[in-house]
Amino acid sequence: MRPWRHSFRENLWLALDTLRTHKFRSFLTVLGVLIGTTTVIAVTSLIAGLDRQLVDVAEQFGTRTLWVYKLQMGAPHALTREEKLRKPLTYEDAMALREQVRSASKVSVELFREMGDFGLPPVTARYKGLEMNDALFVGVTANHLELLNATLGQGRFFTEADDLHRRDVAVIGNSVRERFFANVDPIGKFILVDGHSLEVVGTLTKFKSFLGDDQNDKAILSPYATFKKAYPEARDNFICVLVEPGRMTEARDEVTEVLRRRRKVRPADPDNFGISSAEQLIGQFRDVIGTVALVMVVISSIGLLVGGIGVMNIMLVSVTERTREIGVRKAIGARKSDIVWQFLLEAMTLTALGGLVGILAGYAMSLAVRTFVPSVPTTVPLWSVVAGFSVATGIGLFFGLWPAMKAARLDPIAALRHE
After folding, report:
1. Residue 315 lies in a domain
2. 412 and 72 in contact (C-beta within 8 Å)?
3. How confident is the model at residue 1 (pLDDT cuts 50, 70, 90)?
4. What dihedral angle (degrees, nearest 10) is formed by the CA atoms of 111, 113, 114, 116?
5. 286-325 burial, b if ≥16 CB within 10 A, otherwise e?
6. pLDDT in tens, 162-205
7. Domain co-membership, 212 together with 322
8. Among candidate residues 158, 139, 265, 282, the one with its CA nearest the CA of residue 210
């Protein structure tokens, strides 16, 4: 009995020789497998890259932070009439949370004019002859930097004294600094923000962005009371609660209890405010992406199925073309298992090569997207490569089984007489 390694190597060389002989036919046969594998690798790389980027952004804004707003943050949806008429949170609500939520270590507040359908309303900022039409002007409390996980680039953040005396000072984001002060020291300079003159006392380093969104870098932050002085009608408050380590669930319950009581929500009614966290936003994103991934898997599976049917068809043709060869092999002592493995290895080699080309094509697409569209991150995880190659090879095994069994069952005498 020949060693199985020798038999495997012999059958593999036969398979490769057959593929070499029929290059174009082999390519057309595995085109479906190639397209399906390419789709899987490309989509997986995009999803993995987006997921990593979102996690990085969410972690920068704090994994221990609860964000409290009059509306629920997360996936966009059509607002109900009640949500449109819902009263905003107040500064007093934030102070009540600071005093009554035992699991919170710090509470900060952002104040802005009423949020529109597309986020915060932009303002026009000017410095000398330069102008920026998409700046975001926000009033925040003096401890906001600690909850934002942001880093000062130059200067200082404003203090409680700045807030108390409503001083006209500002801390600017990286995009604002680059626009107005690319080659000069911004500290001590005065900018005009929506008609209000503010002295720059500090700058923030660049934030991590999601899909190239640099809104946070366009922010101009002023003390809460200063912003209120500039916009007396501003009522939209966004509350950030920094939670003690390991007490996130407890903090959420306490915040809910305090706000329901202050906003006079009846026990049977739902909350008329929203509480979000980094983990919750990541979970919502993954739910959406999971649906997209499922659709893409179904689409790529169609390509793999078509490729598998093509493999079965071409292998059946191959069995017919090589009937006499099969008869000769059986006549000189080849067993049924040798014939089965000969055709199975040919089918598996065919689809495995298609899978390898598909993996390379998918990686090339991922690299092209990352190179030409830097705001769209892509990364090819190792498991997707292993899965793509395994599925492609499995397609050959599954769809090549019937032709291989048919070849093994041929009568050697009838096969030798075949013309």
Report:
1. yes
2. no
3. very low
4. -120
5. beebeeebeebeeebeebbeebbebbbebbbebbeebbeb
6. 999 999 999 998 889 999 998 899 999 999 998 899 999 999 88
7. no
8. 282
Torsion sign (Cα): 34, 39, 44, 45: positive
Pair 111, 234 in one domain: yes
Residue 36 lies in a domain: yes
pLDDT for residue 65 is more than 70: yes
Residue 4 backbone phi and psi in degrees, to 5: -65, -30
Asked if the structure places residue 81 within a domain, the reply is no
Asked if 173 and 217 count as a contact pair (C-beta separation under 8 A), the reply is yes
Question: Is there a single domain that holds both residue 145 and residue 52?
Answer: no
- Domain limits at 210? 106-240
Measured CA distances, 93 to 4, 127, 138, 141, 166 (Å) = 76, 36, 18, 14, 21
- pLDDT tens digits, one per residue of 252-283: 999 999 999 999 988 888 888 888 887 777 77
Residue 28 neighbours by CB under 8 Å, 6+ apart: 310
Predicted TM-score of the model (pTM):
0.68
**Is 249 a domain residue?**
no
Q: What is the DSSP string of 13-59?
A: HHHHHHHHHTHHHHHHHTHHHHHHHHHHHHHHHHHHHHHHHHHHHHH
Give the distance from CA 204 to its chain's centroid.
26
Alpha helices in 222-276 (DSSP H): 224-230, 248-262
- Tokens at 307, concatenated: 């490729």
